[in-house]
Design brief:
The C terminus is likely disordered. This protein has two helices and three strands. Among the domains are: 42 residues, no CATH class; 36 residues, no CATH class. Helix content is 39%, strand content 20%. The chain is of the alpha+beta class and 116 residues long. A three-stranded antiparallel β-sheet has the order 1-2-3.
Amino acid sequence: MATKGADAADTRTDTRTDARAALEGTRIKWDDSSMKSSYANVCNVTSTREEVVLLFGMNQAWNRGQKEVTIHLTDRIVVSPYAAKRLSMLLQGVVTEYEKRFGTLNIELAGGDAKK
């Protein structure tokens, strides 16, 4: 019978430890051992109800008057809509901080109008 009591006490201790860990948050360890770095000067995004697809690549055409430009796609990242929303929020924060430090980024649309 002493064993049952000890097991119950251990279970209560484990439950309290798990609850404390949940309140304190999870520690994240970033493992970059398999990471690769890529540069992209073009990004396109498409989506369905279940996923958001980000395509990254390089525009290597430097002449403005070209009739056709080929974009060499190098990476495809597929995320859930929830992850896409979190990514959007993270990127907005980074851009806001960048603009505080270095000034406003003006993005021109294809028609030449500045985005406001």
